[in-house]
Amino acid sequence: AYTSAISQTETEIDENLIVVGVSQVGAESDWRIAQTNSIKESLTAENGFYMIFDNAQQKQENQIKAIRNFILQEVDYIVLDPIVMSGWDNVLQNAKEAEIPVILVDRDVEVDDDSLYVTSVVTDMVAEGRNAGYWLEDYLEKQGREDEDIQIVMLLGTEGASAQIGRTKGFTEIAGQHENWKILEQLDGDFTQAKGRESMETLLKKYDDIDVVISENDNMTFGAIDAIQDAGRSCGPGGDMIMISFDAVRAALEAMQAGEINADFECNPLQGPKLAETIKRLENGEEVEKVQYIEETYFDTTMDLETLIRGRAY
Ligand code: GZL
Ligand code: ZN
Q1: pTM listed for this prediction
Q2: Phi/psi at 138 (5° precision)
Q3: Which of 28, 31, 297 to mutate to test the pocket of ligand 1 (most atoms within 8 A of CB)?
Q4: Which PANTHER family does the annotation name (predicted)?
Q5: Are 104 and 121 in contact (CB under 8 A)?
Q6: 79 pocket-lining for ligand 1 (C-beta < 6 Å)
Q7: Which numbered atom of ligand 1 lies nearest the CA of 32?
Q8: d(CA 32, CA 45)
Q9: Is 126 exposed, middle or buried (0-12, 13-18, 19+ CB in 10 A)?
Q10: Ligand 1 centroid – CA 32 distance (Å)
Q11: Positive/negative CA dihedral, 61, 65, 71, 74
Q12: Max alpha carbon distance in the chain (Å)?
């Protein structure tokens, strides 16, 4: 029986369900909502699971509290989407001592002892950043602007998140190969629309010649587009600034169709099925790879967006 820490009600559950405590970052973006839905649709009773879900509202201390609660409740598995990479050693050590396997999903941790988690179902964030750099190289070439001075600003995701660190690392690596590309400034937008708008307003006030905006998720991009248009400027194909975004949620593909975004790099949020399959494999005593990559792709205005949007699951 499970005593819910919140309602203190005893929940009698079928003993042969696999009990999984899920510590989720928050509900900060469309991408996050899609990932949460995918996890909830996969870890269901009919699939053999009893899921306890915690939304940490983008606070690491809430995730640590949730993990301690899962340990007290003696769950069978802990699934963690870690908001930032550092600060997990102690609580994951507690889980290890309690012999509860920890599975990372989406984002990554930096721990001294990587036996503190069994496997990670993640995307290659550095590759996403590099791909954005390669796309920009290609686009500028097509525009005959490969030798022009290109001034770039970046809206960064949550400081210290593997998604922020990876995308920034990947893009700046490519940017560093072009002495005519200049990154004017990188501001934190915390993956949210409000912060993204605020940071873009600051950048627009500071710089009158911004050629490229690299925004590390679509919700910050939506905020940035508002700020750009409020300042009487434009972004996207034919606009003053090239807008490159990440996540490629439906609303962003619609903005792309409206001519406000040039390219969008996605890491697939539909990670629930892979998570459920991984837990079942572990339950059957199978060896599971330490890192399991979820596929990623990108979209730009050369594609048939009408069809892509219609077929979009999120
Ligand atoms: C990326 C994921 C990021 C998304 C944002 O895998 O961690 O977190 O890009 C979300 O939308 O906030
Ligand atoms: Zn310029």
Answers
A1: 0.94
A2: -65, -45
A3: 31
A4: D-ALLOSE-BINDING PERIPLASMIC PROTEIN-RELATED, GALACTOFURANOSE-BINDING PROTEIN YTFQ
A5: yes
A6: no
A7: 10
A8: 22
A9: middle
A10: 6
A11: negative
A12: 68
Per the CB < 8 A criterion, the answer to whether 204 and 184 are in contact is no
Torsion of CA 100, 103, 108, 112, to 10 degrees: 30
Structure tokens at 293: 């990559």
Cα(214) to centroid(ligand 2), Å? 15
More confident residue, 114 or 4: 114
If pLDDT is split at 50, 70 and 90, which confidence band does 89 have? Answer: very high
* Strand boundaries in 81-124, DSSP class E: 102-106, 119-122
Residue 135's alpha-carbon distances to 19, 58, 139, 188, 293, in angstroms, are 43, 31, 6, 23, 22
Structure tokens, 256: 């792309």
Tokens (6 digits) for 45 = 């009773």
Interface predicted TM-score of the whole assembly (ipTM), two decimals: 0.96
Distance of CA 137 to the CA centre of its chain: 24
Rounded Cα distance, 299 and 266, in Å? 8
Crossing angle of the two packed helices 193-206 and 218-230, in degrees rounded to 10: 40
- In order of 43, 66, 99, the CA distances from 75 in angstroms are 14, 12, 10
Summary mean pLDDT of the chain: 95
List Cα–Cα distances, 80 to 17, 36, 107, 133, 167, in angstroms. Answer: 19, 12, 9, 30, 20
Q: Is the CB of 190 under 6 A from ligand 1?
A: no
